[in-house]
Amino acid sequence: MITEKTKKLLMNKMTILKNKDKKDLCLVGPVRLPVQLDDKVVTFQWYTWLSLEGIPTDKEEILNSIATMDLASQQQSSVLVYGDFEDSEEAFIRMHSICHTGDIFGSKRCDCGYQLRQSMRMIVENGSGALFYLANHEGRGIGLFSKSLAYILQEEGYDTVEANLALGFPDDTRSYEEAIRVLKGLRAHPVTLITNNPKKIDALKQHGLLIQDHIPLWGDISEYNEFYLTTKVEKAGHIKKSELTIAN
Questions:
Q1: pTM across the whole model
Q2: Residues marked as catalytic
Q3: Could you give the strand order of the β-sheet that contains 129-134, starting from the edge strand earlier in sequence?
Q4: Are 77 and 136 in contact (CB under 8 A)?
Q5: Helix (H, G, I), strand (E, B) or coil at 44
Q6: 191-194 and 211-215 beta bridge pairing
Q7: SS3 label, residue 24
Q8: 8 Å CB contact between 215 and 191
Q9: Mean pLDDT of successive 10-residue stretches along the chain, which has 248 residues
Q10: Domains in the chain, start-ordered, CATH in brackets?
């Protein structure tokens, strides 16, 4: 049983983001999060959020219900915020899709792990920004189990797009609507987006995100992901790097 004192402490860190046309979100944070980034420790402010579809929108009722929600079997997204994010003149934003294999295991079949860490470096160097870690974006939205099936097809010569389509999925099913609602709750000014994907820029603009500029992010190119990166450029419309130099 959560005590009244504990409830008060936690509710002060909870914000209900309401939307008359969409399900409400509960944003929790900030939580001080020291992160080892290369040779130094950088302190971010960490937030996470929960979709309140079928869940009470009252803070106290949420706290009374969490023990029976089975949240561990679901996926929640979060965001790392750095610097004076609310009021800084320029803030870098990365909408990073979760990649279990690349981000956690360091797989060389993609460049996701590199982009995750490099985006964090760029945000810190800029002095202000936020990295959104979107937990329901695995495999461009098809989920981890389906992604493993897509990888089997890729080992037989399918590219990323062909594999997703062969499994009955669209090329890209990701939604940024919740992340943008959280972003608007944290900052009202335009942002600079870290991405190679102009389709992502268009999708974010359609959801009302104020984009000041964008910065492409290429790196960690090797024999293992050359085909994957080429497919991104040729079929997914990613901004082309002038030269794809294969690392030895």
A1: 0.87
A2: 172, 174
A3: 14-17, 25-37, 40-51, 78-82, 129-134, 92-97, 191-194, 211-215
A4: yes
A5: strand
A6: parallel
A7: coil
A8: no
A9: 87 92 91 95 96 86 88 91 96 95 90 93 98 94 93 89 90 89 94 87 84 82 65 59 41
A10: 4-137+174-235 (3.40.50.10990)
